[in-house]
Amino acid sequence: MVINVSEVITDPDFAQTFTVYRSTGSFVDGVWTENTPRAIKMLGVVTVSSQKELDMVAEGDRIRGAMTFHSVCPLYPTRVGTAQGTSDKIMWRGEYYKIQSVYPEVDWGYYKAIGTRIKGA
Amino acid sequence: MADKILSLSQLRKLFFDLATLMVDPSTQVRMSWPTGGAPAFEIDDNVLFIRIADVASTYHIPQELKYEQVGSPEEGNMQIHYTRTLRITWVFYGQNSWDDAVAVRTKLFYQTNHDVLARQKIYLVPNFDPPRRFPELWEGLWYERVDLTTDFNEKILINYAVPSILTVPLVVKGDSGTIHDGKITESTIVREGGLIINK
Fold first, then answer.
1. Complex ipTM tops 0.85
2. Domains of chain A from N-terminus onward
3. Which of A5, A33, B79, B192 could form a disulfide with A28 if both were Cys (CB 3.0 to 4.6 A apart)?
4. Domains (ranges, CATH) in chain B?
5. Is A32 in the B-facing interface, judged by CB distances under 8 Å?
6. pLDDT tens column, B93-104
7. CB-based contact (8 Å) between A27 and chain B?
8. Under a CB-based contact definition with an 8 Å cutoff, are residues A19 and A84 in contact?
């Protein structure tokens, strides 16, 4: 039996709130069309995955970065099937992060996901 | 004559509708490069992806310009006619991919499908390569994939209004100073200080 560490994830000394936008959708005339996403308030630990970094390209400066989100609620990447939808988008401190990878740590009582910042200008 | 050129979204809809007429009814038709990403598909799903691009060809360079006076009052209008060559790449996945590709290859020549495109001034370039099969390895399984690349010539018509001179500022100065300061228009005859300027 593994140790359940979910208490740490929601501990006020570590946790903060963020909003997860979860969307489903369908293909309309061959184009993926999202429904209005559902906003889900979550409490968890947010840490840096990769720092904000500047890419100087010919057309201007691009900034990319990624954050790691820990939560006791599931976080989803893009999924196919009956409840198909694109990756969760997380609003944290005024910026959106799209889930790129999810670690299957549920046996330890939490979910861990890495989201990359979107609209990277 | 109004402009005749399809937008990318109109082209997507046109080829989506055409594809659904040609492939197996169970095959889903989708557009490649969804802006915000999209769910993919499972190994048993039959999916056709359509990619649209504009490419160089034998006919893409020549332009025909035709000037005419239109409207009332008449204004200059230039018509630009040229041919745009569209490259449609059909990417088939699934167990039906081979059969779907063969169906598209064959049915593009059907008169009814020709007519769907001809109504939009789009015509198949018939010398394309046969479907190419190359399954993809993904998570330990070979996903069936067949590609077919076809070109279409689209007749384009663009109008633009030709700029014309409407008024000309005119200042006439004599020994005693300015005797006319005004504008000459198409219908103006100036009589000022004994000076007559005909159109």
1. no
2. 6-117 (2.40.10)
3. A33
4. 8-57+84-153 (3.30.70), 167-197 (no CATH)
5. yes
6. 999 999 999 999
7. yes
8. no
